[in-house]
Amino acid sequence: MTRPLVITDCDEVLMHMVVPFARWVDEAHGVLFRMEDASFAGALKRKECGTPLEAAEVWPLLDGFFRTEMERQYPISGAMAAMAAIGAAADIVVLTNVGPDHQAARAAQLAALGLAAPVIGSRGGKGEPVRRLLDERRPSVAVFIDDLAGHHHSVALEAPEVWRLHMVGEPAIAGKIAPAPYAHARIDDWAEAADWILARLDENIPAPRPQLV
Prior knowledge:
Layout: E1 5-8, H1 18-29, E2 31-33, E3 44-46, H2 55-68, H3 79-87, E4 91-96, H4 103-111, E5 119-121, H5 127-137, E6 142-146, H6 149-158, E7 163-166, H7 171-174, E8 185-186, H8 190-203
Parallel strand pairs: 1-4, 1-6, 4-5, 6-7, 7-8
Antiparallel strand pairs: 2-3
Protein backbone atom coordinates (compact mmCIF):
# COMPACT_ATOMS: atom_id res chain seq x y z
CA MET A 1 0.00 0.00 0.00
CA THR A 2 1.36 3.43 -0.94
CA ARG A 3 0.36 6.93 0.04
CA PRO A 4 -3.20 8.11 -0.60
CA LEU A 5 -3.77 9.56 -4.06
CA VAL A 6 -5.76 12.60 -5.17
CA ILE A 7 -6.47 12.80 -8.91
CA THR A 8 -7.73 16.22 -9.91
CA ASP A 9 -8.92 17.93 -13.05
CA CYS A 10 -7.56 21.40 -13.82
CA ASP A 11 -9.98 23.65 -15.73
CA GLU A 12 -12.78 24.98 -13.47
CA VAL A 13 -11.29 22.97 -10.59
CA LEU A 14 -7.80 24.42 -10.17
CA MET A 15 -7.84 27.13 -12.86
CA HIS A 16 -10.48 29.40 -14.36
CA MET A 17 -10.97 28.55 -18.01
CA VAL A 18 -14.35 29.52 -19.47
CA VAL A 19 -14.14 33.20 -18.48
CA PRO A 20 -10.70 33.85 -20.07
CA PHE A 21 -11.67 31.60 -22.99
CA ALA A 22 -14.86 33.64 -23.55
CA ARG A 23 -12.90 36.88 -23.59
CA TRP A 24 -10.41 35.48 -26.09
CA VAL A 25 -12.92 34.00 -28.57
CA ASP A 26 -14.81 37.30 -28.51
CA GLU A 27 -11.67 39.37 -29.14
CA ALA A 28 -9.94 37.08 -31.62
CA HIS A 29 -12.73 35.18 -33.38
CA GLY A 30 -15.95 37.17 -33.11
CA VAL A 31 -17.56 34.38 -31.12
CA LEU A 32 -19.74 34.87 -28.06
CA PHE A 33 -19.72 32.38 -25.19
CA ARG A 34 -23.03 32.42 -23.32
CA MET A 35 -23.59 29.27 -21.27
CA GLU A 36 -27.33 28.87 -20.72
CA ASP A 37 -27.28 25.20 -19.69
CA ALA A 38 -24.71 22.44 -19.23
CA SER A 39 -23.73 22.42 -22.92
CA PHE A 40 -20.30 23.94 -23.56
CA ALA A 41 -20.47 23.59 -27.35
CA GLY A 42 -23.98 25.06 -27.49
CA ALA A 43 -22.78 28.17 -25.67
CA LEU A 44 -20.56 29.25 -28.58
CA LYS A 45 -22.33 31.49 -31.11
CA ARG A 46 -21.17 33.77 -33.90
CA LYS A 47 -21.41 37.37 -32.78
CA GLU A 48 -22.52 38.69 -36.17
CA CYS A 49 -25.54 36.40 -36.61
CA GLY A 50 -26.07 34.44 -33.37
CA THR A 51 -25.86 31.01 -34.99
CA PRO A 52 -24.23 28.24 -32.91
CA LEU A 53 -20.86 26.89 -33.97
CA GLU A 54 -20.75 23.41 -35.45
CA ALA A 55 -19.31 20.73 -33.18
CA ALA A 56 -16.30 20.36 -35.48
CA GLU A 57 -15.43 24.03 -34.94
CA VAL A 58 -15.24 23.82 -31.14
CA TRP A 59 -12.08 21.78 -30.61
CA PRO A 60 -9.90 23.95 -32.91
CA LEU A 61 -10.87 26.95 -30.78
CA LEU A 62 -10.04 25.10 -27.57
CA ASP A 63 -6.79 23.84 -29.05
CA GLY A 64 -5.85 27.37 -30.07
CA PHE A 65 -6.62 28.68 -26.61
CA PHE A 66 -4.46 26.08 -24.90
CA ARG A 67 -1.70 26.51 -27.46
CA THR A 68 -1.29 30.28 -27.16
CA GLU A 69 -3.52 31.74 -24.44
CA MET A 70 -3.03 29.70 -21.26
CA GLU A 71 -1.39 32.66 -19.56
CA ARG A 72 -4.86 34.22 -19.44
CA GLN A 73 -5.93 31.58 -16.93
CA TYR A 74 -5.77 32.21 -13.17
CA PRO A 75 -6.32 30.00 -10.11
CA ILE A 76 -9.72 29.20 -8.64
CA SER A 77 -9.92 30.88 -5.23
CA GLY A 78 -8.35 28.68 -2.56
CA ALA A 79 -7.24 25.96 -4.98
CA MET A 80 -3.48 26.25 -4.52
CA ALA A 81 -3.71 26.50 -0.73
CA ALA A 82 -5.92 23.42 -0.73
CA MET A 83 -3.47 21.52 -2.93
CA ALA A 84 -0.64 22.39 -0.53
CA ALA A 85 -2.63 21.04 2.42
CA ILE A 86 -3.69 17.93 0.53
CA GLY A 87 -0.15 17.35 -0.74
CA ALA A 88 1.03 16.94 2.84
CA ALA A 89 -1.27 13.92 3.20
CA ALA A 90 -1.41 12.43 -0.31
CA ASP A 91 0.22 12.25 -3.71
CA ILE A 92 -1.45 14.49 -6.30
CA VAL A 93 -1.82 13.83 -10.03
CA VAL A 94 -3.48 16.31 -12.39
CA LEU A 95 -5.57 14.50 -15.02
CA THR A 96 -6.68 17.03 -17.61
CA ASN A 97 -8.34 16.59 -21.01
CA VAL A 98 -6.12 19.10 -22.81
CA GLY A 99 -4.52 16.16 -24.59
CA PRO A 100 -0.86 15.14 -24.84
CA ASP A 101 0.05 18.17 -26.98
CA HIS A 102 -0.59 20.57 -24.10
CA GLN A 103 0.52 18.38 -21.19
CA ALA A 104 3.92 20.04 -20.75
CA ALA A 105 2.47 23.56 -20.91
CA ARG A 106 -0.13 22.66 -18.30
CA ALA A 107 2.54 21.23 -15.99
CA ALA A 108 4.57 24.42 -16.34
CA GLN A 109 1.47 26.54 -15.74
CA LEU A 110 0.74 24.78 -12.45
CA ALA A 111 4.38 24.56 -11.36
CA ALA A 112 4.65 28.35 -11.69
CA LEU A 113 1.83 28.59 -9.14
CA GLY A 114 3.54 26.19 -6.74
CA LEU A 115 1.86 22.91 -7.71
CA ALA A 116 4.66 20.66 -8.94
CA ALA A 117 2.51 17.58 -9.56
CA PRO A 118 2.58 15.06 -12.40
CA VAL A 119 0.23 16.06 -15.22
CA ILE A 120 -1.48 13.63 -17.58
CA GLY A 121 -2.96 15.21 -20.69
CA SER A 122 -5.68 12.73 -21.60
CA ARG A 123 -8.60 12.66 -24.01
CA GLY A 124 -12.01 11.08 -23.55
CA GLY A 125 -13.42 9.42 -20.45
CA LYS A 126 -11.18 9.50 -17.39
CA GLY A 127 -12.10 6.09 -16.01
CA GLU A 128 -9.35 4.20 -17.82
CA PRO A 129 -6.48 6.58 -16.92
CA VAL A 130 -7.69 6.60 -13.31
CA ARG A 131 -7.71 2.79 -13.32
CA ARG A 132 -4.15 2.75 -14.66
CA LEU A 133 -3.00 5.15 -11.95
CA LEU A 134 -4.52 2.96 -9.26
CA ASP A 135 -2.94 -0.19 -10.67
CA GLU A 136 0.46 1.52 -10.90
CA ARG A 137 0.49 3.29 -7.54
CA ARG A 138 -1.67 1.02 -5.34
CA PRO A 139 -2.81 3.88 -3.07
CA SER A 140 -4.40 3.11 0.28
CA VAL A 141 -7.31 5.39 -0.68
CA ALA A 142 -7.99 7.64 -3.69
CA VAL A 143 -10.09 10.72 -4.43
CA PHE A 144 -11.08 11.99 -7.88
CA ILE A 145 -12.12 15.62 -8.51
CA ASP A 146 -13.71 16.88 -11.72
CA ASP A 147 -16.27 19.40 -12.97
CA LEU A 148 -17.86 17.14 -15.62
CA ALA A 149 -20.51 14.57 -14.71
CA GLY A 150 -19.49 12.23 -17.53
CA HIS A 151 -16.05 11.74 -16.03
CA HIS A 152 -17.55 10.78 -12.67
CA HIS A 153 -19.64 8.14 -14.43
CA SER A 154 -16.56 6.89 -16.28
CA VAL A 155 -14.54 6.62 -13.07
CA ALA A 156 -17.43 4.95 -11.24
CA LEU A 157 -17.47 2.28 -13.96
CA GLU A 158 -13.71 1.67 -14.12
CA ALA A 159 -12.59 2.47 -10.56
CA PRO A 160 -15.60 2.28 -8.22
CA GLU A 161 -13.43 2.25 -5.10
CA VAL A 162 -12.39 5.87 -5.72
CA TRP A 163 -14.12 8.70 -3.84
CA ARG A 164 -15.55 11.16 -6.37
CA LEU A 165 -15.99 14.89 -5.71
CA HIS A 166 -17.90 17.02 -8.22
CA MET A 167 -16.56 20.58 -8.20
CA VAL A 168 -17.38 23.49 -10.50
CA GLY A 169 -15.15 26.28 -9.25
CA GLU A 170 -16.25 28.89 -11.79
CA PRO A 171 -19.20 30.85 -10.32
CA ALA A 172 -20.29 32.00 -13.79
CA ILE A 173 -21.36 28.45 -14.70
CA ALA A 174 -21.67 26.56 -11.41
CA GLY A 175 -25.36 27.32 -11.01
CA LYS A 176 -26.13 25.98 -14.50
CA ILE A 177 -24.60 22.55 -13.85
CA ALA A 178 -26.54 19.95 -11.86
CA PRO A 179 -24.75 17.72 -9.32
CA ALA A 180 -23.15 14.69 -10.99
CA PRO A 181 -25.22 11.58 -10.18
CA TYR A 182 -22.12 9.37 -9.81
CA ALA A 183 -20.18 11.70 -7.51
CA HIS A 184 -20.24 11.19 -3.75
CA ALA A 185 -20.44 14.95 -3.09
CA ARG A 186 -20.83 18.27 -4.91
CA ILE A 187 -18.76 21.10 -3.39
CA ASP A 188 -17.78 24.23 -5.33
CA ASP A 189 -15.79 25.99 -2.58
CA TRP A 190 -12.19 24.92 -1.95
CA ALA A 191 -12.18 25.51 1.82
CA GLU A 192 -15.10 23.09 2.25
CA ALA A 193 -13.81 20.74 -0.44
CA ALA A 194 -10.38 20.45 1.18
CA ASP A 195 -12.00 19.45 4.47
CA TRP A 196 -14.08 16.80 2.68
CA ILE A 197 -11.06 15.40 0.84
CA LEU A 198 -8.84 15.34 3.93
CA ALA A 199 -11.59 13.54 5.85
CA ARG A 200 -11.73 10.83 3.16
CA LEU A 201 -7.94 10.49 3.30
CA ASP A 202 -7.98 10.31 7.10
CA GLU A 203 -10.68 7.62 7.10
CA ASN A 204 -8.50 5.66 4.64
CA ILE A 205 -11.26 3.34 3.40
CA PRO A 206 -12.43 2.74 -0.18
CA ALA A 207 -15.59 4.36 -1.45
CA PRO A 208 -18.79 2.29 -1.43
CA ARG A 209 -19.54 0.70 -4.78
CA PRO A 210 -22.19 2.62 -6.75
CA GLN A 211 -25.37 1.29 -8.30
CA LEU A 212 -24.43 1.72 -11.96
CA VAL A 213 -26.79 2.22 -14.88
